[in-house]
Input
Amino acid sequence: MRYGALLAIIAAIIAAFVYAASDKRQPVSAQDFVNLQQGDVIQQGFRRAHANGFCVSGEFIASGALAEYSSATVFQTGRHPFIGRFSVAGNNPTAPDVKAPVRSLALTLLPDSAAQWRTAMNTPPVLPVGTPEKFYQQLQAIKNNTIAEFFAAHPESAAFLQWRASYQPTQSYATEQYHSINAFYLINNAGQQQAVRWAAVPSAASETLSSDSQHDSQQEPAVTDSLQQELFTRLAQGPVTFDLVFTLATANDNASDATVLWPATNPQRIAGQLVITAANEQKGHQCDALNFDPLVLPAGIQPSEDPILRARAAAYAESHRRRAREVLLESLTGNNSAKGAGDE
Amino acid sequence: MNKPQVYPIAMRLVHWLMAALILSLLFVGLSMVSSLGPWQYTLLQWHKIAGVVALFAVLLRVALRLSSRTPALPNAIPKWQQAIAKLTHLAFYALLLLMPLSGYLMQNAAGRPLSVFGVSLPSIIATDLAWYGAFRELHAWLSIALILLIILHISAALYHGLIRRDGVLRSMIKH
Output
């Protein structure tokens, strides 16, 4: 009887731990996401999404225009260093960058400070769907070639599809617009909050990509890093700059829904200018070690309730863990097969 | 020298408060690494703060242990069991120190700022992917070792309390 009680208590404790450790408690876990994103061939040591990319660095010259909205150091007038990364969507680090449907600019501002701020921005301004579970189904639909049916079944994808139809890829990372997609709150010294989204808006004039370079032409097959080479060449002529433009939500906007574009009439503020002065291969350089987790926020910026934002952080963390483990094992075994890391 | 029958009140109090803190840390830790839920971010912030609190708590615990007179195990307990009891207690102290330290260092290696109750904590090691991998994996494996140790510890405590009824369990719960 007393043995029975003892065994029952121990069994209950073990069951509680096993349940907590299981990733099957929810319909979709961070592990499920990364398993789907990484595909069937694991690219050891690389990011599970946005594997093809490279490091950049420079300074953010803050205008001070956001100081009334946020107490964050990064928005106070001055020059703030950043480490960043340009990349394209996809799990293959050697797939031609110019052919990817989405390009990204990720930043870690003030990397050595307690007021550090990370943001991972993409070319689309909105997402097709607004929850992690639906996003997971979208990835499955892409894999199964049923994406047209998926979009038809999800009317909230209208804004995204409209963007996609109008989007013309340019010939450079330097001439794209990169969006925060999710909304955040700026908090000022008085504790007032303002919902915002932001975008890095290029200073350089763009040239639309010829259809030849986007699709394989006989004369010039697309290479892994033609966009990367273009940016390296461009940087040799001088800095590449973007304005960091914040759009303020009005009472009509929902900060938790990343599928809806805010009206173009919303007020905007230019927080400052991003000045990129250097670029390097990702392997062996600083951006490689970083997970551009959009929830690494300083005092003065807080996440919105957007469920996608939380899921991004959890999935990025799983991807970061996997590639860090692989890089660790390579360094222990002296096997240098992987060329480094590579959408966190 | 006479050994007391029960642990001093300070040690009993710290033991039970830490038990609650560490079980919470373990359950939150296990859940947050897989969940895409909206509470994941909040729990992650809590986990970091509670981890730093746990580090200070275990230092206090070690100081109390070294400065207190603690009850001996009953003579009737076989020598090999007494040896295992000592070993598990030592292993507890080691794991309870290494858990927060590996957690702290993995944040450092990931280049993430850490602050607790508004105080910014210094980064001890540089940002590095392989070191992040090392401390991230260590943190996970140590947590599994700690969970196994806790199960062994609770099993032994209940064995003493329910089966042998020899006062060993009472030495930590008597008020």
